[in-house]
Amino acid sequence: MLTSTFYTQLAEICPGNRCLTRAVDLLPYESDALTAFRATPGAVVLPETEAEVIALVRLCHQAGVPFVARGSGTSLSGGSLPIQDGVVIALNRLNAILKIDPEQRTAVVQPGVINLNISKAVAKHNLYYAPDPSSQSICTIGGNVAFNSGGAHCLKYGMTSNHVLAMRVVLPDGEVVEMGSESVEGMGVGPDLIGMFIGSEGLFGIALEITVRLLPIPEQYRTVLAAYDSLESAGNAVAAVVASGLLPGAMEIMDKLALKAAETAVQAGYPAGAVALLIVELEGEAEQVEHEFAQLIDVIKASGAYEIQVAETAAQRAKIWKGRKGAFSSVGRLSPDYVVQDGVVPRSQLGKALAEIERLSADYGLAVANVFHAGDGNLHPLILYDGRQPGALEHAEAFAGEILKLCIALGGTITGEHGVGMEKRAYMPLLFSETDMDAMYAIRLAVDTKLVANPGKKLPSDEAPALKLHGMHPLEQAGIISRE
Amino acid sequence: MSKSPTTAAEVAKIVNAATHVTAVGGRSKWTFPAADTVTEIDLSQLSGIVAYAPDEYTFTAKANTPLVEIINTLAARQQYLPFDPLLANAGATLGGTVACNTSGSGRLRYGGVRDFILGVRFVDGNGNVLRGGGNVVKNASGFDLPKFMVGSLGRYGIMTEITMKVFPKPAAFGTLVLQFESVAAALQASFALANQPFELDAFDFRHTNGSTTAWIRLGGLPNTLQPRLTRLQTWLQTHTSVQTIDTLLEDAAHWQGINALAFAADSPNVVKIPLPPRKLLHLDEDPAIDLAHYYCAGNVALVTTTDITALGSALTRLGLNGLLLRGTATNPQLGTRHWLPFAQRIKTALDPHQKFLEI
Ligand SMILES: Cc1cc2nc3c(=O)[nH]c(=O)nc-3n(C[C@H](O)[C@H](O)[C@H](O)COP(=O)(O)OP(=O)(O)OC[C@H]3O[C@@H](n4cnc5c(N)ncnc54)[C@H](O)[C@@H]3O)c2cc1C
Prior knowledge:
The complex is a heterodimer of chains A (484) and B (359).
Chain A: H1 4-13, E1 19-20, H2 23-26, E2 43-45, H3 50-63, E3 67-70, E4 87-90, E5 97-101, E6 106-109, H4 115-122, E7 127-128, H5 141-147, E8 164-170, E9 176-180, H6 193-197, E10 206-213, E11 215-216, E12 220-228, H7 231-243, E13 250-255, H8 256-266, E14 276-284, H9 286-302, E15 307-310, H10 314-325, H11 327-334, E16 337-340, H12 350-364, E17 368-372, E18 381-385, H13 392-409, H14 428-431, H15 434-447, H16 474-477
Parallel strand pairs in A: 2-4, 3-4
Antiparallel strand pairs in A: 1-2, 5-6, 6-10, 7-11, 8-9, 8-10, 12-14, 12-15, 13-14, 13-17, 16-18, 17-18
Helix pairs in contact in A: 1-3, 7-12, 8-10, 8-11, 12-13
Chain B: E1 2-3, H1 8-17, E2 20-24, E3 38-42, E4 49-53, E5 58-62, H2 67-75, E6 79-80, H3 94-100, H4 107-110, H5 113-116, E7 117-124, E8 129-133, H6 145-149, E9 157-165, E10 167-168, E11 172-180, H7 183-193, E12 202-208, E13 211-220, H8 222-239, E14 244-248, H9 252-259, E15 270-274, H10 280-284, E16 291-295, E17 300-304, H11 308-318, E18 321-326, E19 333-335, H12 340-350
Parallel strand pairs in B: 1-3, 2-3
Antiparallel strand pairs in B: 4-5, 5-9, 6-10, 7-8, 7-9, 11-13, 11-14, 12-13, 12-16, 15-17, 15-18, 16-17, 18-19
């Protein structure tokens, strides 16, 4: 429990209604987009300046109270789940784009800036911010930094980490550090601390100011839809495109269920009756794209697609992407609950992985919708279940676990972009040796001596948030997490 | 004392037994004076490509594999490391490239070493063999130790094996050679190009003998290259103050020359400086610099100097930093390093007994 002195100190930094403590005010912060997990924080604070954030971190460190930074709470892995009785530092009010430099192609932003707002703000300069998580109209750059978030268009130019040049961060004990520069070479000298901070899921402190690099808007897009009668052949088509030497801007797959959901929600005009749909998009200089397009069509034709459609207008292209980016939410309408997995397999193993997921789906008797970043081998199976049924969540989680193990067995990893969070901590030791895990703990402890920054996330440990669930979580059964 | 381990486990054993260790790779870059208490680990036995999966766009190689071997292996499958790691023909190794973060001209197109590293195996100061990252192109599990190793200069661990992403290599390249009145005019051209759709593989410039020469490289499909070069040329003529433009189609030798730092052949000291382009002109006029070659559209400088100390002070004054690529110094890192407090903490975890050099 937080002491009254601590509450007073919090309210001194964030006065009035910027320090929330009443149960009714805390409710919206009890979980993130992984809604199966809930925990009630002791307080939610809404700082408006960098100085306030630093003061809050220092206070938490001094008092030994755990804190969780929060952007828009769209984490799918429980990353922004509060620590029971800890502090949530909500950064949405630090949402200024501080500087746009079109000639250097950089923008300096506060952590609460919404991803898409950067692209909107720089569009008049014919520039954009490349990483495009499907949640880009709501998620924040701070959250993107914490998770090294990706998106459909990260195949060619990379994820968040590949687009951040400089950062000012407050470490968990309140020390403020600057790293990187407005050069595309970023750090340049010294270990790549920017790379190290990005994807650290809030364990290394809070990003206060982020300098991102911008890219010129591609001159030409060519967006191709190819329909297949099996997921496996769509997966194999991805491998064929990659092997042909083409480097598309995006390569995405949606399966029957995801297509049905997306089609109902946005009428994207996807080919009817497809078991699997491959979206491939080329982007770049017009001359080059037109020639690559001819090559691509040859590869797709040879890959067994039974129908090929090409977006003829910008509006058609926009619709295709609207359907794809809205797919998670659309699937959400089909089922009361879902968990989404984020494992990665080598591209050549996609067909195999998808076939195996299909088999597991039948075994578990749980429907799966697949909609994912095929070009990166990054799967997103959405496992549908009904949380009101006793044991349903556990059943779904067990299925999800099998998928993660499958990804590891095929030479891949347990998360491509959603982060480990709460959800996948237990699987880390399957991927890393005990020595590796110990080194990660040691690094974390050296950065955060009091373990106050988002404890219980990313690394398996017993400092887990208390949970309110429908039933026993598999992690609880395994004795990894516990409830009060 | 020098030892030549053949496995990561042997490296670990040496680290455990020694008071201080320092790893030596291809010796294509700087050297520093060795002290008696330091055990030198010669990594030359840790060489060779372990796995190459062209269809996955990835390979794994032992740390001391010469870049040339990697480049040739990739080229046979029409693939490449787009960031043109420096000093490839001078014997630079993959491990040295990662440790020193030496991307070259091609960095402009798809990013540098940090953007292509996927996995790393290294021995830390505790004598543990650690692994970070993985073999797939996307991975968010664990801390990003592979990226952390980029630019780490052997001060946090000794890399033994590295996994990298590669890209398909354009079938054809061509270069425009431009003359400008000054470095400022070349920089202005790069600013003008910034929001244009041209996809440049490289944009370098250098001022010598009273004028500034710039080289802009395009890569792509052979049948599109000429029209793209022509279009770019026309655009540059109308939108920048370029004086003359020539086309160089057989351009490999030219870019290899830059990669080999041929322009700095006579200088004992070469320093690489990450540079916000807006600071370029301030740096350019500093008296400590003899010659400056700018690449990545003015985002990185390679400078020669006879006075490393004066250059270091200039960098500090300008809020910049630099890495000595060639020359002799006790610490090859020059200028400001605001990030030290964060790095120091990680150093404490990975090298608590100070087996490696101070950061
Ligand atoms: C419908 C839907 C679609 C999605 N699609 C994608 C996708 O395509 N690709 C993808 O990668 N993800 C996707 N996500 C996941 C999610 O949107 C991303 O992880 C996003 O980056 C989270 O941003 P946020 O602002 O909501 O962060 P939050 O959920 O609030 O926080 C996420 C993590 O970031 C930390 N954090 C927040 N701000 C900071 C800061 N300033 N400094 C340090 N740590 C901080 C938090 O502590 C937490 O650990 C999707 C989510 C949903 C709901």
